[in-house]
Amino acid sequence: MNPRRRTARRVPRRWRPPHRFDDWLTRARWRFRDLALAVLVAVVLAVAAVQFPGLEYLGGGRIIDGDSLRVDGREIRLFGIDAPEAVQMCKTATGAPWPCGRAAAQALRRLIAGAQVRCRMMDEDRYGRAVAVCRAGKRDLGAALVLAGLALAYRDHSLRYVGEERTAKAARRGLWQGRFEKPWVWRRKRRSWSRMNKTGSRSGHAARAADGRGSGAAIP
């Protein structure tokens, strides 16, 4: 027996850390993340395409007030304008009150007059209504109302109808014949009055309860 073979040292194979599997796992995670992100973006874009600009409604219009109507089952607010509220009153050149809110609604009804209304959605308001540019035939309903002086250009949202408003004001049409409160100011005051009345009602109820009226006790 050769003694050298007994004493010969066995050289171990070179050890390699398992980097290959770790690299594959890292790449797989990044690919999954990219795929998930792409799916999320696609879903968001699809929802936006359905809910917002470009969506159209077509059908007979049913008037709600001077700047709102229902078309194809959807409540729509006319884009870029603000008309007096249904119960709002304005004043003529002589100071006589006149129902400008009702007049705006009647004007919108006449503009539609049984025609097919096509509305292109521009946005959605906080009440879930579509905000859209609507036409009866080739007539832009918002432009016609502002030009008649029965609605104002809603500058906080769009400058689209500022030219029509200037023309109506120069000709003293509709609202511009006398004095009026801008619809958004009128609404803000009405909300303030409503809150004050509710607070006053609660205070009055508390006072009545304190002096016995709220409990049904006899008043001395």
Task: Write structural notes for this entry.
The structure is a single chain. The protein is of the alpha+beta class. It has a domain at 56-177: OB fold (Dihydrolipoamide Acetyltransferase, E2P), CATH 2.40.50.90. The protein has helices spanning 3-7, 19-51, 100-112, 141-147, 162-171, 183-210, and strands at residues 56-65, 68-71, 74-78, 81-82, 90-91, 97-98, 116-124, 130-136, 139-140, 152-153. The chain has a five-stranded mixed β-barrel with strand order 1-2-3-8-7. Strands 4-10 form a two-stranded antiparallel sheet. Strands 5-6 form a two-stranded antiparallel sheet. A hairpin with a 5-residue loop joins strand 7 and strand 8 (130-136). Helix 4 runs parallel beside helix 5 (162-171). The longest helix has 33 residues, at 19-51. The radius of gyration is 35 Å and the shape is elongated.
Structure described in brief:
The protein is an alpha+beta fold and 220 residues long.
